[in-house]
């Protein structure tokens, strides 16, 4: 057990204290995840069978990494651990126990799109206005209720729950919730929240099943405990009730999912629920430099709601935090890419040592473009993911429907795809017939002539039904790969994409081929015992954004671009936190209360603490948001960084007034009070309560050419919203007809009419 020597005293204590409840709430980078990993290895070496251990992580990726590390210590046996996200572990259990809840084991897992589409359908049927009942808002309410274990029956029976919706002029929310649940059930489908909700129901109503799993999971371990919601908490509480061998690790300062129902109270309740609780403190940070640890500590001190804890490190002092000040969002992209390249060269870092972290997904564009220009490989996590692309969802819908012919959302997607002459009116007829006869859509379709009469529209439906039945036979007999290829071809989907010779069409065709590759890989993987299509679909349904973009080509040296939320638990040598502007980070949506602002600050804390060696922070003075150029103000969070550890840096792209030049790179720079002028915000100017969103849609600034074409001269460097950076070659004509010929770095030569051009003068 050499690995015990690689742990400090409290870490070792936590690893070897195996019996009884244990809680470790400690700061970032203090080795919580490491403790959890070694604890599992230790248990196995003590002789605990892997299938008696349940380990819950926040992403599948984290589970995979943990399993690999444990494998290094205990060998292949680690494969038999029950390890994964709450959703993946409990969906497996639900498949085994589905019949107890009235589902069958081939139930579909609805993703957010499916749920929204079903809600839209229900709104239409109930004749409700989707402007008042916005589908995404309705889904949030339903999700919130489920995560607090409020069933639709409870919701309808208790004014405490519906009063708020009623006050917001949404009195029908309960009816929508009820119908939504009924329709999911009829479709033999569960949404993400159902996976947890139904597990709770299963353990509540079937004591024998609960007993079975209580005895199965003798040891329960949870990473990132601060982000569990009530539903998750109760599941683990029930499972651990007999053996009481539950170990949770987390950091209240990193709780960033309150908006999804995560509840910091779980940490406080834990001590109450387990009077014999042992707590271990970890205070030494092994990840980051002294500078980074200090800065992170100072930032989080601004939060009132936090458990006091000490974090220190023995690591080197490290370099200052560098602030990059950019003129525009594109300039920010360039500065970051340029700085990243410089760091890489100076320190012999690899691409994979870098991460660019942002508040929201759409911010990735400017960095992608700039990195591409620099020839630096990168991967974007999240955003519109592979599995959310239309052509992929279409094929997956076929697979889902063949496996679970009650799946209404899949049915609606594929019934007339590729076009087979089954129009909306016919689909509506099918829906009505199904409702009237209390049948699923598939039951109507598979006996079309019986329920729909013998009109002309019948024959394509009968063909469709025959095709699906044939697919079902193939799925029974073949593995996931053969079945998927057969369905891709047999449905006509592949042919339709193949025949589309446009660039987009070809890309779509290649995407479908890529999906087939993924299925092949799944089938060829010796670790997968079950090679059926059901098993494959189950995996796909539970892929989280942080799991995607795993390198398939074996080359994993790329810069990671991701939201801070998906960076949780990860670490990188150099981190860029970008877009540090008021209304962006902290996000405008999160400024209405102190609690929300504190959640944003925790997010900032998570971002800072991902960095090992060096941290950069950037912001832009102007940014296109929602199609408008807006002035930005530096984030209040920049002010919370201890100035003695701060350096500002500007490079050749910015020539705004009073700028520092490259020469003071690396030297500490004491910021003057108006350093971030023109209108540096102070916290006082932002009343947190009832703040009206300050409207920042400025008219174009002085530098913005469309408002002042007279300023533009030949030789000037400019930036265009679409074409990027360029230099003015020539100016012709006068007045409103004045035009400039510009040579853009990437878009080539263009002549633009200045009174319309979205141009900015850079220098
Ligand atoms: N005793 C130790 N000796 C050397 N390195 C350690 C030790 N403990 C932890 N580390 C290293 O420190 C880094 C942070 O550890 P880990 O990821 O487990 O921290 P964490 O508390 O889970 O952080 P986070 O809160 O961000 O999830 C890892 O690279 C880990 O290998
Ligand atoms: Mg961790």
Automatic annotation (TrEMBL):
ATP binds at residues 26-33. One of its GO terms (biological process) is recombinational repair. Residues 290-569 form the UvrD-like helicase C-terminal domain. InterPro entries: DExx_box_DNA_helicase_dom_sf, DNA_helicase_UvrD-like_C, DNA_helicase_UvrD/REP, P-loop_NTPase, UvrD-like_ATP-bd. The keyword Disulfide bond does not apply. Residues 679-693 have a biased composition (Polar residues). It catalyses: Couples ATP hydrolysis with the unwinding of duplex DNA by translocating in the 3'-5' direction; ATP + H2O = ADP + phosphate + H(+). It comes from Thermoflexibacter ruber. Residues 677-702 are annotated as: Disordered. GO terms for molecular function: 3'-5' DNA helicase activity; ATP binding; ATP hydrolysis activity; DNA binding. Keywords: ATP-binding, DNA-binding, Helicase, Hydrolase, Isomerase, Nucleotide-binding. Its EC number is 5.6.2.4. The lineage of its organism: Bacteria, Pseudomonadati, Bacteroidota, Cytophagia, Cytophagales. Signal peptide: none annotated. Residues 5-289 form the UvrD-like helicase ATP-binding domain. Belongs to the helicase family. UvrD subfamily. One of its GO terms (cellular component) is DNA helicase complex. Coiled coil: none annotated. This is DNA 3'-5' helicase.
């Amino acid at each position: 057990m050499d690995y015990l020597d690689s742990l400090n005293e409290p870490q070792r204590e936590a690893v070897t204290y195996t019996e009884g409840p244990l809680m470790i709430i400690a700061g970032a980078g203090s080795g919580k995840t490491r403790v959890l990993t070694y604890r599992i290895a230790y248990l196995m070496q003590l002789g605990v069978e892997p299938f008696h251990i349940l380990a819950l992580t926040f992403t599948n990726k984290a589970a995979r990494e943990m399993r690999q590390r444990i494998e290094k210590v205990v060998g292949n046996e680690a494969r038999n651990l029950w390890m994964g996200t709450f959703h993946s572990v409990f969906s497996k259990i639900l498949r085994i126990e589905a019949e107890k809840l009235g589902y069958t084991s081939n139930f579909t897992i609805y993703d957010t799109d499916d749920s929204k589409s079903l809600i839209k359908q229900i709104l239409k049927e109930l004749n409700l206005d989707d402007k008042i009942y916005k589908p995404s808002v309705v889904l949030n309410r339903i999700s919130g209720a489920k995560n607090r274990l409020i069933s639709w029956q409870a919701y309808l029976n208790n004014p405490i729950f519906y009063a708020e919706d009623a006050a917001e002029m949404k009195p029908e929310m309960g009816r929508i919730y009820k119908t939504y649940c009924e329709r999911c059930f009829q479709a033999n489908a569960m949404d993400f929240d159902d996976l947890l909700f139904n597990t709770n129901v299963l353990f509540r109503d079937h004591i024998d099943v609960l007993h079975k799993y209580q005895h199965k999971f003798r040891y329960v371990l949870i990473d990132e405990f601060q982000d569990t919601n009530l539903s998750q908490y109760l599941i683990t509480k029930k499972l651990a009730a007999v053996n009481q061998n539950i170990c949770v690790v987390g950091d209240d300062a990193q709780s960033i999912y309150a908006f999804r129902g995560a509840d910091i109270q779980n940490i406080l309740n834990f001590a109450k629920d387990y009077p014999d609780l042992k707590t271990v403190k970890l205070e030494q940070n092994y990840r980051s430099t002294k500078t980074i640890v200090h800065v992170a500590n100072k930032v989080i001190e601004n939060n009132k709601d936090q458990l006091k804890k000490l974090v220190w490190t023995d690591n080197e002092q490290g370099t200052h935090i560098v602030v990059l000040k950019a003129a525009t969002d594109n300039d920010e992209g360039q500065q970051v890419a340029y700085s990243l390249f410089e760091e890489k060269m100076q320190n012999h870092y690899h691409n994979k040592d870098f991460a660019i972290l942002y508040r929201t997904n759409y911010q990735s564009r400017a960095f992608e473009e700039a990195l591409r220009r620099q020839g630096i490989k990168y991967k974007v996590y999240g955003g519109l993911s592979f599995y959310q692309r239309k052509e992929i969802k279409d094929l997956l819908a076929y697979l889902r429907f063949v496996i679970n012919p009650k799946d209404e959302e899949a049915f609606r997607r594929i019934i007339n795809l590729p076009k087979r002459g089954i129009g909306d009116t016919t689909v509506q007829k099918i829906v009505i017939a199904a409702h009237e006869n209390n049948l699923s859509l598939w039951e109507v379709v598979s006996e079309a002539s019986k329920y729909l009469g013998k009109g002309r529209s019948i024959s394509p439906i009968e063909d469709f039904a025959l095709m699906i039945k044939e697919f079902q036979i193939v799925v029974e007999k073949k593995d996931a790969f053969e079945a998927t290829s057969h369905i891709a071809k047999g449905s006509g989907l592949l042919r339709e994409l193949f025949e589309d010779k446009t660039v987009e069409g070809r890309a779509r065709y290649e995407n479908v081929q890529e999906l087939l590759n993924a299925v092949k890989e799944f089938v060829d993987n010796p670790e997968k015992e079950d090679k059926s299509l059901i098993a494959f679909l189950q995996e796909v349904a539970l892929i989280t954004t942080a799991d995607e973009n795993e390198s398939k080509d074996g080359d994993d040296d790329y810069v990671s671009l991701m939201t801070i939320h998906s960076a949780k638990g990860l670490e990188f040598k150099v981190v860029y936190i970008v877009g540090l502007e008021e209304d962006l980070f902290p996000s405008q949506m999160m400024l209405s209360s102190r609690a929300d602002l504190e959640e944003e600050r925790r997010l900032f804390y998570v971002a800072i603490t991902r960095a090992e060696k060096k941290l950069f922070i950037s912001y832009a003075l102007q940014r296109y948001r929602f199609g408008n150029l807006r002035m930005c103000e530096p984030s209040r969070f920049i002010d919370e960084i201890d100035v003695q550890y701060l350096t500002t840096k500007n490079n050749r792209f910015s020539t705004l007034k009073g700028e520092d030049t490259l020469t003071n790179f690396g030297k500490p720079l004491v910021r003057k009070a108006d350093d971030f002028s023109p209108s540096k915000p102070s916290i006082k100017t932002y009343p947190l309560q009832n703040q009206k969103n300050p409207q920042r849609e400025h008219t174009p600034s002085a530098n913005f050419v469309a408002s002042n074409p007279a300023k533009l001269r030949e030789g000037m460097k400019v930036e265009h919203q679409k074409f990027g950076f360029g230099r003015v070659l020539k100016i012709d004509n006068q007045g409103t007809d004045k035009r400039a010929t510009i040579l853009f770095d990437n878009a080539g030569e263009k002549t633009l009419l200045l009174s319309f051009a979205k141009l900015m003068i850079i220098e």
